[in-house]
Amino acid sequence: METEPLYRWNGEPACWQKHEWACTWEGQLTGAQSKASETIRDAILQQESSLLVWAVCGSGKTEMLFAGIEAALRQGMRICLATPRVDVVRELLPRIQEAFSTILIQALYGGSKEKRGTSQIIIASTHQLLRFEHAFDVVIIDELDAFPYHADTSLAFATERALKPSGTMIYLTATPRRKERRKLQWNQLKHVFVPTRYHGYPLPVPQMCMCFSLHKQLQKGTAPRAFIRWLCQRENKQRQLLIFLPTISLTEKVVSHIYTILFNQKIIKDASEITSVHASDPERERKISQFRNKRLLVLVTTTILERGVTFPSVDVAIIDAGHSVFDEAALVQIAGRAGRSAEDPDGEVVFFHDGKTNAMVRAIRLIKRMNQLGGFT
Fold this sequence. Notes:
- The protein is α/β, with parallel strands linked by helices.
- 33% of the residues lie in helices and 19% in strands.
- The strands form two sheets. A seven-stranded parallel sheet has the order 3-4-2-5-6-1-7.
- Helix 9 links the parallel strand 10 and strand 11.
């Protein structure tokens, strides 16, 4: 804050411990994952300035990082894994702790119990990087294109300042923005591309569904008729439901009507099985955890859950998909919530709209293109 003093370290640089065989993860990588993993590891060991990892939703980006993180720890380097979304920090922490069980790992974000940020591996929201200067040998930005990182130049500045001059910046994204795509086109940014999911199945391709009088129905607190028909005709009613709406007020308005429909269809038995969640919800963390543990069957949400969270078996619906908040990147990411497990790789994704937008068309085109590059017709 403006009234608080800011301190910087001017003593000897910190010396971090070297760890042999720090990674305790015993899983196996696919061929595409292995190629990306080796590229990440080599970029760190050769102290390359930057690397972009363009990998589709559900490709296993986190697991691809393990070899690089282990190589960095073997060299006595310090690592920061940063992401714009607090929910992603919470999701990453137990996964990284399990993969590097002998290393102290701290998570920093607004409201976190941990305040020090003194460990060799830090997982943080990108806002927390304002606290660091030339502190890390490796900085990994997960979800590079997510809001607010791509829209706030101060966060990019903080990220670059947190990295040592000789350090390596690793960018992870499933939906690079125009700026990054232009750099790739002109060979100004080294990159590795992973077009397939870890389980070897294609990305679910969204369907578009026209809804007449969409906004009138939403303002009344009722879900569109086309959405109701889809709810009743879903192929697999055992899947959990992730329903996206563009604003907080709409999520709170529509949730009771959706409950009534699902209760009448005997898909849910009680009001405790459905709720809404948004960024300012004080029970946000608890609700997401309940949905992950299948104590909630239906979650009505804003774009806070568009990325970085994994649920094994869900159908995804976006109501008012033509709203400006749903840009191409958001639509691709939301579609990527479906079909993330090998046991159920075919989740349904539907864009409910009252008029196609360029963002919707481009998102579907990109998903189909990724499937083609992955070897699916």
